[in-house]
Amino acid sequence: ALAVDGNTQERREHAADYTLVSSPMKLRCKNSDVLSTEDQVATNGDDDVEPYRFVYLNNPLENAKLKYIGNTITTSRYTLFSFLPKVLWYQFSKLANAYFLMISVMQCIKRISNTDGFPASLPALTIIVLIDMVFIAMEDYRRHTSDRKTNDIPVHRFDAANGIFEERPSRSLVVGDIIKIFNREVIPADCVILGAFEQNPDQPRGICYVETKSLDGETNLKMRQGVECVYTTLRSD
């Protein structure tokens, strides 16, 4: 869940206008649209009906029972323990490397070897494989570094116990968390808009503008609007 804020300075001037709903509020979603807060879904016996997705706001214990995935981003391919076996499998799945490995093995058999049992092709093959492994390791290290930076992006998550927004790394977000995104900040997860900064508090519209160039390359701002029953409730409560 997402509470969007349009401007930091204006937000401070109108801080009293913002209230958030915590548990036991629960959203029932289908196709990314908030439908209701009921616990059960009437399917009328139709097995083809897509099941709804329940999200408990600010209730990580209930959401944990639903086994939603976390918010950690992983683009790296290898770990410290899986690097060697995976890279060796990748290297010798190449036809050229597999061919020269077979030649090296056959050269070790003196009866059929023309090198007196010495694998003459093995040193060159080893050097080629090692150089390739070094480049793969460097590339994957950069992936790990990028993942750490992305997962450590600070996010303002609402703490229901203290009633304030606390700064947390984006990797710690779970489904159902309420977060506040300031102007020009990166959106750290798939979100549902709960509310936005309103220039006219008496007529809330729940509208914000987002840039999606990291997804589709477009730099023009796109308008996004929350569900009316949600952002009006946030303001009235």
UniProtKB/TrEMBL annotation:
InterPro entries: ATPase_P-typ_TM_dom_sf (IPR023298), ATPase_P-typ_transduc_dom_A_sf (IPR008250), ATPase_P-type_domA (IPR059000), P-type_ATPase_N (IPR032631). One of its GO terms (biological process) is phospholipid translocation. GO terms for cellular component: endomembrane system; plasma membrane. Pfam families: E1-E2_ATPase, PhoLip_ATPase_N. It is found in: Endomembrane system. Residues 157-195 form the P-type ATPase A domain. The chain crosses the membrane at residues 87-106, 118-138. It comes from the Eukaryota. Keywords: Membrane, Transmembrane, Transmembrane helix, Transport. GO terms for molecular function: ATPase-coupled intramembrane lipid transporter activity. Residues 55-118 form the P-type ATPase N-terminal domain. SUPFAM superfamilies: Calcium ATPase, transduction domain A (SSF81653), Calcium ATPase, transmembrane domain M (SSF81665). This is Uncharacterized protein. It comes from Aphanomyces astaci (Crayfish plague agent). The lineage of its organism: Eukaryota, Sar, Stramenopiles, Oomycota, Saprolegniomycetes.
